[in-house]
Amino acid sequence: MIKYNEVEKMETTLKIKAYNLLNLAGPLVDGQVISRRVLGALVRQTALNMCKRRRLESDSYQPPHVRRKFKIQEMVQKYKCEMNESEFYTHLFSTPLS
């Protein structure tokens, strides 16, 4: 959770609450005083970093390349057809394209 309080007209102080210390993913940290001019961009970047870190810490998280690999293996198992080289070329060139 990210809260902010206006200190002066052009400065803001932040209160960042994380579920655990590992969720504190910058660029902002708790108690930091920053300009209102950069507040939006830094809050957005901090929120995105916290979400990404929380997702990566999940036990069930699989990166996209791993999910893609498993899906390809699943398709191969589902549609594989055992044949030798001559049967393959016969099937490839004799089957009409619909």
UniProtKB/TrEMBL annotation:
One GO molecular-function entry: GTPase activator activity
InterPro entries in the record: RALGAPB (IPR039930), Rap/Ran-GAP_sf (IPR035974)
GO biological process: regulation of small GTPase mediated signal transduction
PANTHER family (UniProt xref): RAL GTPASE-ACTIVATING PROTEIN SUBUNIT BETA
Protein name: Ral GTPase-activating protein subunit beta
